[in-house]
Amino acid sequence: MSYVDGTAEIDAVTKLLGVKSTRLNEALTQPSIKVGENVIRKNQNMQKTVYSAAALAKVLYERVFRWLLEKCNEAISENTKMITESIYNRFIGVLDIAGFEIVQNNSFEQLCINYTNEKLQAFFNHFMFVREQSEYLEEGIRWIQTDYALDLKPTIDIIEKPLGLLSLLEEECVVPNGSDHSLLQKLCTNLAKYPEFKKAKHSQRCQTVRHFTIKHYAGSVDYNIDSWVEKNRDVVENAVLEVMGDSTKSLVKKLFPPGNNFAKNNEINHFHGLLPHYLRVLPIRAH
């Protein structure tokens, strides 16, 4: 069983959030759950309480960030009504992301960056070649219909498909006693049939531990799975969400609506109705 040793920190946080210190304390250390018609409290151990507090911090940051972006879009739009009805009717957007990344110790952060680049590269290939094909057809030039984005699909599938990497990671984060070792076993079992995924071979000369390799469009990357489950734990207890939803601060209350119906966006889906232009930056390496 965990408990809060001293109230100075939680009092300061709850004052800013506009919630009662005692309620948030109980929601983090002894969250209530409904079993049938009864409501009971479960005693969290220290590790689960720390995970719950960290998950709340992540969710709060994400939702404030999205809210801030919406306010920026409203502020620079000459027609606020257009924003609410169809934000993508008329706008100029700039997407600047980190490029494909391979470092000495590739962890969950590198996987997220490389997955994003994989998706954008597939979109780029599809858009550029489909547009080129349409021009050839209009001019009567013979052309073999090919979707070059499909070349990247196997790698994207092993990451995002059901029983893919992200799905198995989410599952491991919610099951009791989920661990990185168990996740690695599930990945090797479920993804072994894909040529783009391989269990890494250890080398005495390598300073970092490599657990598995994924073949990306820019090259193969060896990943270390240590701390992936901990990094991805973001399950917020319903009791915590209820406390936040009862905040006296209007913004906090808006960020935590009843039923946890806060909107989530899949930005890549919005790109397909747009007219994109590309600027590819080639890094200059000094040797």
UniProtKB/TrEMBL annotation:
GO molecular function, one term: microfilament motor activity
Any one annotated GO CC term: cytoplasm
Any one Gene Ontology BP term: actin filament organization
Residue span, Myosin motor domain: 1-287
Keyword line: Actin-binding, ATP-binding, Coiled coil, Motor protein, Myosin, Nucleotide-binding
InterPro entries reported for this sequence: Myosin_head_motor_dom-like, P-loop_NTPase
Signal peptide: none
Protein name: Myosin motor domain-containing protein
Domain of life: Eukaryota
Family to which the UniProt record says this protein belongs: Belongs to the TRAFAC class myosin-kinesin ATPase superfamily. Myosin family.
